[in-house]
Every structure is written in structure tokens, then in C-alpha cells.
Amino acid sequence: LRQGLDKTRRGIVNQLKAIVGQGPLNQAAVDEIESLLLQADVGVEATDYIIKALQKQLREEVTPPDKAIAYLKTILRDMLDAPLKTSYKPSFTPEKENLNIWLITGVNGAGKTTTIGKIAHLAQKSGYKCLIGAADTFRAAAVEQVKVWGSRSGVEVIANPGQNTDPAAVVFDAIAAAVARETELLLVDTAGRLQNKKNLMDELSKIRRIIDKKAPNAKVESLLVLDATLGQNGLRQAEVFSQAAQLSGVVLTKLDGTAKGGVALAVVQQLGLPIRFIGAGEGIEDLRPFSSYEFVEALLS
Ligand code: GDP
Q: What class of enzyme is it (predicted)?
């Protein structure tokens, strides 16, 4: 993770550390911090919040650098943990011996298919019975691609032959297969067309209806896969999806290729959604359950 966040850390965070570590915060230091946070794509809202929190803590005291950094770490961790209603352990958390259905959403290119492959692999490794539903039926290549990932992780993929089949029909079949096989985690790939919000909404709500009807006791999550390299632009996409899907969390991908790791803070602050996983590479192992502690340590240590 530390390696994955190298670019973000080198680009901005080290300078931030140097300024905060000097304490006390005067106006010039605050201005500098503000501009650094904005450069790291932390976003205006989250930046304001961090600055205010820092000022409150450090006001008038001459704070030793170690203590100032510790304050900053606490502020960031608390921000990242805020959307979690219960205390959260950084582990893989589907309920055992129950059907968990995770809808994986996001625009094409965000890393949806790769993420599904990685989660399937993690599920297998963690002893879950896993299945993939290839409901991105719009792109012919998507089904093939998800099958490749399925075979890499040894997880079966339920797909419909033929192009442009109804995604909800695939979900229907996938749930039937999941119930018959006592699957614990069903990952559902969904279409990533953002051009038409209404279509997206209709499709996702139809899938939801099928799930409610066919698997009323399943624990359903809706995860948005978001490309971290897009920084603030990705957030606009995220807003569209959060209107169309009842999102329960975000998977932030491509953190290895960007200095915009600060977008994690913007996602949490602006969307009120927890980050659930982070992707930091193209390989099957390059996905981690998110931990605010790990993340902040990797950034600021
Ligand atoms: P989809 O269209 O959303 O299904 O996106 P894909 O899963 O096909 O991924 C698009 C590209 O991003 C591929 O080249 C992936 O290898 C790459 N990718 C996905 N996740 C990551 C990541 O965490 N880090 C890096 N560096 N590349 C990634």
C-alpha cells in the first residue's frame, strides 16, 4: 500500500508534513496546506474540514511536530471512518453461510472487471463459495473478459449466450444458480454506460427488484468502482451513480498510478460513502480491504 501511494506521498504529502510539523499554524502555513490538499485532489469541502479541524487543535499552542502530525493523522482517520456506522475491521466481510450479493457498478474503464476478478480471488482465498453474474450484457467483450478473470480465480461465471440480452435475466439465472449451490458471495457485473442516466437507473432498479423477489434474505451491497486517477472528475461520475444506485461503498482503483490519492478523502466527505477496497495494481492480488489506519499511515509515515 505504501508503495501504491508513493506518488501521492512524494508529490504533496511530504510537503504537507513539513508544514504541519513546524506548528504553530499561522495564516501563511494554512494557505500552503490548503493549496497542497487541493493539489492532491482532496476537494474543497474536505480541505475546509481538515483546515478547520487542524486550526482548532493547534491554535495558539506551539505544538511539537510529532504531535501535530499525530493530530493530522487522527483527523484524516476520523474522516475516513465517519460513514461507517459500526466499528469496522479491515477485513473481508461478507456474511458466512448467507447469500451476499454485491452489485459492482462504475463507468467503463474504471476497473470494474478487474475488481470483480480480484474480489472473486479474495473470496476464494478466504474460503467463501463465490459466483459471478455477467450482467454487463451491453458490451460483448465484457462477458468474455469477466470469464477470463473467473477462470483465473477458479470462480464460475453465469452468463447468457448472445449479445444484448436482458441483464435482469442474467441476474435471475445467477441467483438461481447461487441458491442451488449455496453460494455465499455472488458478484454481479453491471453495465457502465453513463451517457444515459435514466437507462442506468432503470437497469439497476430492475436488477434490484429481481434480487428482492428471488433472494429476499440476501445481504445486498452496491459498490461503485472509481478510478482514482480521475481525481475530482471521478466524483462527478460518482454523484450520478449514487443517484442511480443505492450505493453502500466505493472501490478506489489505480491508486498506484496517481498522485491524486487524496480523492479518497473527497469521496468520503462528499458522498458520505465508505471506501471498502482499494486497487493498487493490475494483478489479481492487488486489491486490499480498506483500512483508514493503513491508508493514513501509508500516506503520512
Ligand atoms: P472496466 O471497463 O471498468 O471493466 O475496466 P477494466 O477492469 O477492464 O480495467 C481497465 C484498465 O484498468 C485495465 O487495463 C486494467 O488492468 C486497469 N486497472 C484496473 N484496476 C487497476 C489498478 O488498481 N491499478 C492499475 N494500475 N490498473 C488497473
A: hydrolase
